[in-house]
Amino acid sequence: MAETLGVNRLTLRAALSRLEAEFLIAPHQGRGISVLDWRLSAGLGILAHVDAPEAISETLMLRRTLAAEAIRAACIHADRDQIEVINQAMQRQLHENDPYRFFEGDLAFTQALVAASGSLPLQLMFNTLARIAQAHPEPMMKQLSNR
């Protein structure tokens, strides 16, 4: 396979490991490798690597749900320092007119909320959603411009 693709075996092995980690392939001892239906097996993070505008838009809706839960949890768990970080992030956003800087600031604000929530699952979900947003900033900037 490495020869057919024109790569060395180490590169091929690394690529296959990555595809397996993303649940895109499944190796079978003695039977080779099965290609899986990514819609049925992959995780949310795969959206950072695909061009699926509708799915990206829907992911941003999921991000709003995450932010609402982070706000709820932050109201319960945040300490004074975390509240100050959230406030500073919010203040920076109030006067930001550059779409890309607003986009980056929105991620920073949401990150501060998630950190203050004290929830590891919310943090991990945010990390994934942030990677998707950073891989596809245009849909997010468009959505943020409708604020």
Structure, explained:
This protein is mainly alpha-helical and 147 residues long. It has helices spanning 2-5, 9-21, 38-41, 53-77, 80-94, 99-117, 120-135, 137-145; strands at 25-28, 32-35. Helix 4 (53-77) packs across helix 6, helix 4 (53-77) runs antiparallel to helix 7 and helix 7 packs across helix 8. The mean pLDDT is 90.
Shape designation: elongated
Give me the count of strands.
Answer: 2
Structural class category: mainly alpha
H/E topology pattern:
HHEEHHHHHH
Task: State the distance separating the first and last CA atoms.
Answer: 50 Å
Summed up, the helix count is: 8
Oligomer kind:
single chain
User: Average pLDDT, to the nearest integer?
Assistant: 90
Taken as a percent bin, the fraction of beta residues is: 5-15%
Main sheet specs: 2 strands, antiparallel
Low-confidence stretches: none
Q: How are the strands of the largest sheet arranged?
A: 1-2
Report the C-alpha radius of gyration, rounded: 19 Å
Which structural traits does this protein have?
two-stranded antiparallel sheet; mainly alpha; single chain; 147 residues
Blueprint (SSEs and pairs):
Elements: H1 2-5, H2 9-21, E1 25-28, E2 32-35, H3 38-41, H4 53-77, H5 80-94, H6 99-117, H7 120-135, H8 137-145
In short, what is this structure?
This protein is mainly alpha-helical and 147 residues long. It is built from 8 helices and 2 strands, in the order ααββαααααα. The mean pLDDT is 90.
